[in-house]
Design goal:
Layout lengths: L5 E7 L3 H12 L4 E5 L12 E2 L1 H9 L3 H7 L8 E4 L8 E3 L17 E2 L2 H16 L3 E3 L1 E9 L2 E8 L5 E11 L6 H6 L3 E2 L5 E9 L13 E4 L6 E4 L5 E7 L14 H12 L7 E10 L2 E3 L3 E2 L2 E3 L5 E2 L7 H20 L9 H23 L53 E3 L14 E5 L5 H11 L4 E5 L6 E2 L4 H6 L6 E4 L5 E5 L7 H11 L8
Parallel strand pairs: 1-2, 1-10, 2-7, 4-13, 10-19, 22-23
Antiparallel strand pairs: 3-6, 4-5, 8-9, 9-10, 11-17, 12-15, 12-16, 13-14, 14-15, 17-20, 18-19, 21-24, 22-25, 25-26
């Protein structure tokens, strides 16, 4: 199949972040080409936790049910601590998301779905929308940017040969050793070597052994070392073994599968366990952040932009959030609704989030008494940029709030979830967010629709949803307005990524809504009003 000579967006990297970006760009109708050097999706589980915020994004893509069906049951999202897998004095910590607990903050709680299971689901959906534009077995060799676009050279690793492709934008989703980042001359700062680990993927009949303590992760306490990560909590497992690369334990050969099987048996506390080692991976824990997320026509996302310690499970999820933030902005720029200045807000919004997530995860890595797994941490992401119209004097929130999620309709925050009773297909206010801007109000008067019509006449379309009107009703009437901090006459303007761009207590006079939209899309200063 010939390579297209031109494309709007060239995505380098077909892991979870690159595939999510492809799915979202297809949803927005943006032509793109994704290239991935691997011949197929990941064989090793790698990342496993899909957070609530990522699940909300994937829900918007129509993938929630399939991913949830492929993951571990919610009852197993627990965390075990013991000397080995048969320690009678084990401790099992709480469920990451307890739907019977406090206030429901999301319609899509996180789950455990390992990367080797998740990637094929994402790849199938990406190919459904852009089959000819998803090229595995293809490596990006170079990507030279100029004022009008990017000239890329691709190598077809299966069929041989090199191909030149011209793109308007290049997005590096190609991992910590990113060719795109290096080619753009963007540096990475932060410590490396916080730990060295051997990851052993193996099969063993452990389902019956852990039946009374089934968990997502089994952390071993001294004299145990490392921990077991459940893939299916039955036969498929990962053993994470920390080691000093200069001094293997007892002179053991960490590449010998028989010795690795013995290592697994010793860690499990089951000397007669039948173990089949499938593959291994050596990895290093780093905590690094790119100095920039954009350089001209080149942008970075995922591990190419930030390397997050896995202690907390936020690395892949932070990258999926990058894709969500970037996709609608690329769509708005490429279809002419926004200026290229909108893409500057990508770094302004996402880099501070990554910085704080890296710091929290590094603190977790240093914690000796264990750490809290927070499924809702990334729900707390709060943005400040030219693509947000905040009221004068509005408090500045941290990029993420480690104290927990507190629903808010403040501009920059993710729009709150309020459960809906209809119509079919919309069970949350988050389901009202479409591919364009969305105005949500409880005001049944025509005033807000008139403002939206005026904005559309100016080339700035916005969809209006009135809660309590017709079949669109909240399970708890008025909840969304209370969470957003607006009266019944007010409204919040929600971006395609689900973050609030602006809120108002009443329909404004004149073309105020159009001015707000223009401000968000162009980065122009706007005299925001409370």
């Amino acid at each position: 199949m010939p390579f297209p000579p031109t494309t709007t967006v060239l995505i380098a990297g077909g892991g979870p972040v690159g595939l999510t970006l492809s799915i979202l760009l297809s949803r927005y109708g943006v032509d793109h080409l994704l290239v991935e050097a691997r011949p197929d999706t990941a064989r090793h589980p790698k990342a496993r936790g899909v957070s609530a915020r990522s699940m909300e994004i994937l829900r918007r893509c129509g993938l929630e049910d399939e991913i949830r069906g492929a993951g571990l049951p919610a009852s197993q999202v627990r965390f075990y601590r013991g000397r080995d897998l048969v320690d009678p004095d084990f401790v099992r910590s709480g469920v990451a998301h307890d739907p019977a607990g406090a206030e429901e903050h999301t319609p899509s709680p996180g789950l455990i779905c390992s990367q080797d299971v998740l990637e094929p689901i994402l790849l199938r959906r990406a190919r459904e929308s852009a089959a000819a534009r998803i090229r595995f077995g293809t490596r990006l060799l170079t990507g030279a940017a100029d004022g009008g676009g990017v000239s890329a050279v691709l190598e077809d690793l299966a069929g041989g040969g090199r191909h030149e492709v011209r793109a308007q934008w290049l997005v590096g989703c190609d991992g910590a050793g990113s060719t795109v980042r290096t080619g753009a001359g963007i540096g990475m700062d932060g410590p490396t070597g916080l730990g060295h680990f051997l990851s052993v993927r193996f099969e063993a009949p452990l389902g019956a052994v852990v039946a009374d303590r089934a968990s997502a992760s089994y952390f071993l306490t001294p004299p145990g070392r490392g921990g077991f990560m459940a893939v299916d909590n039955d036969r498929h497992w990962i053993y994470q073994y920390p080691f000093d690369p200069d001094r293997p334990p007892g002179g053991a050969d960490l590449t010998d599968r028989r010795q690795l099987a013995d290592l697994v048996r010793a860690a499990a506390g089951l000397p007669d366990l039948e173990v089949t080692v499938r593959d291994t991976a050596f990895w290093r824990m780093d905590a690094r952040l790119a100095s920039a997320y954009r350089r001209g026509r080149v942008l970075l996302a995922g591990d190419a932009a930030h390397v997050v310690p896995p202690t907390g499970g936020h690395g892949m999820n932070t990258g999926i959030g990058d894709a969500d933030n970037l996709a609608w902005k690329l769509a708005a720029v490429t279809d002419g609704r926004a200026t290229t200045d909108l893409l500057d807000s990508y770094q302004a919004e996402r880099r501070p989030v990554a910085r704080q997530v890296i710091d929290l995860s590094a603190d977790n890595a240093r914690a000796r008494a264990g750490y809290r797994i927070d499924d809702e941490l990334l729900l707390t992401a709060a943005y400040r940029s030219a693509a947000i119209v905040a009221a004068p004097g509005a408090p500045v929130r941290p990029p993420v709030d480690a104290s927990g999620y507190h629903p808010s309709g403040e501009p920059g925050c993710r729009a709150p979830h309020s459960r809906l009773t209809g119509p079919p297909g919309s069970s949350s206010t988050l389901d009202l967010v479409g591919t364009g801007f969305t105005l949500i109000t409880a005001d049944g008067t025509p005033a807000w629709q008139h403002r939206a019509d005026a904005a559309a006449a100016a080339g700035l379309p916005v969809t209006v949803h009135t809660l309590g009107a017709g079949r669109l009703r909240e399970e708890h009437p008025g909840a969304f307005g209370r969470l957003c901090g607006v009266p019944a006459s007010g409204a919040v303007l929600v971006r395609p990524d689900g973050h609030v761009a602006w809120r108002a207590a009443a329909p404004p006079a004149g073309p105020e809504l159009a001015r707000v939209l223009r401000s968000v899309l162009t980065g122009a200063a706007h005299p925001a009003r409370p």
